[in-house]
């Protein structure tokens, strides 16, 4: 038995300080997980149950450490937004994972961006349609190298920021998250059987905004370095 078309390439993320790669299975993204960002998007920052959307695994764009990579401005949008986020990568999965055990399932952490066609997302919200056209575009998830938890620990606090052409647009602390990484893992595992290689984008702070071609974005998280992308 053989496949009748060529098999698609496997999506994988690099490990910081190593030539090894971690294969990606699914990509979950939590919405409005910083109170100030919830307010700027017209939401309620209280601890209501978190909500998630997904990106395809092949929407991730690898951003090597110390390099500025080209990031394509996508079609069908006039309002393309950056959202810097802590990225969590799982080493093991399961169902109904207790919050107290959730961090034991984490392989490591990285800096990522949830790039968003905001005009298409806003239209989908108004029409009560899914968000994929706004959130799941090609290369919409730039991610830097994964820092293993055995070396970086489990960052519950530390500066998270994004600048455009040297001007700081987003600046907050990981401790400002409404739902912690452990709580997100536990909540997701009540709906899905999580597995090794699952990726979670843990939410963005306030200050999201548009970029245009020719601008350079730098996303950074304390202890995890930074990623640099030039919009082309």
UniProtKB/TrEMBL annotation:
Superkingdom field: Bacteria
Gene3D superfamilies listed in its UniProt record: Fumarylacetoacetase-like, C-terminal domain
Every Fumarylacetoacetase-like C-terminal domain range: 27-232
One annotated GO molecular function: acetylpyruvate hydrolase activity
Name of one Pfam family that matches: FAA_hydrolase
Record's keyword terms, sorted: Hydrolase, Metal-binding
Protein name: Fumarylacetoacetate hydrolase
Lineage, opening ranks: Bacteria, Pseudomonadati, Pseudomonadota, Alphaproteobacteria, Hyphomicrobiales
């Amino acid at each position: 038995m053989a496949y009748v078309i060529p098999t698609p390439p496997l999506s994988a993320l690099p490990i910081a300080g190593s030539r090894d790669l971690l294969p990606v299975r699914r990509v979950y993204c939590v919405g409005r997980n910083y109170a100030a960002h919830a307010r700027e998007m017209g939401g309620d920052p209280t601890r209501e149950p978190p909500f998630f959307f997904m990106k395809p695994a092949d929407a991730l764009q690898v951003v090597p450490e110390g390099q500025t990579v080209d990031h394509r401005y996508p079609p069908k949008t006039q309002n393309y937004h950056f959202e810097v986020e802590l990225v969590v990568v799982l080493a093991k999965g399961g169902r109904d994972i207790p919050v107290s055990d959730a961090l034991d399932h984490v392989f490591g952490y990285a800096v990522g961006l949830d790039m968003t066609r905001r005009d298409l997302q806003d239209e989908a919200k108004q029409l009560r349609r899914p968000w994929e056209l706004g959130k799941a575009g090609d290369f919409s998830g730039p991610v830097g190298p994964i820092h293993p938890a055995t070396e970086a620990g489990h960052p519950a606090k530390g500066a998270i920021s994004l600048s455009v052409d040297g001007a700081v647009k987003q600046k907050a602390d990981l401790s400002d998250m409404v739902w912690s990484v452990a709580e997100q893992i536990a909540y997701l595992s009540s709906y899905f059987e999580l597995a090794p290689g699952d990726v979670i984008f843990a939410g963005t702070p306030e200050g999201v905004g548009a970029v245009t071609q020719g601008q350079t974005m730098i996303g950074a998280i304390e202890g995890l370095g930074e990623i640099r992308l030039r919009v082309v």
